[in-house]
Amino acid sequence: MPIQVKLFASLRERAGWSERLVAADELPATPRSLWRQLRLSDGVEAETARAGQADALPQGIRVAINQAFAAPDAPLADGDELAFLPPISGG
Description:
Blueprint: E1 2-7, H1 9-15, E2 19-23, H2 31-37, E3 62-65, E4 68-70, E5 81-85
Parallel strand pairs: 1-5
Antiparallel strand pairs: 1-2, 3-4, 3-5
């Protein structure tokens, strides 16, 4: 089940890639399971160390499926586009 995964801004910089076609290891696939599979928490400062939240997405990370915001546990379908967006800052 290939999913097109896109990373933006600081997530892209930390991971060293912006787009990748990924075959999900877990079914049903969700943004949360792909976040874990791709080890995207490596190097991302987050408040995920709290009890019971070891597999949570870091605070502020937004998920979009096919260019619409979605929940981290939303099911993914074959060929979906999944985007992870970091918190936005401006000035």
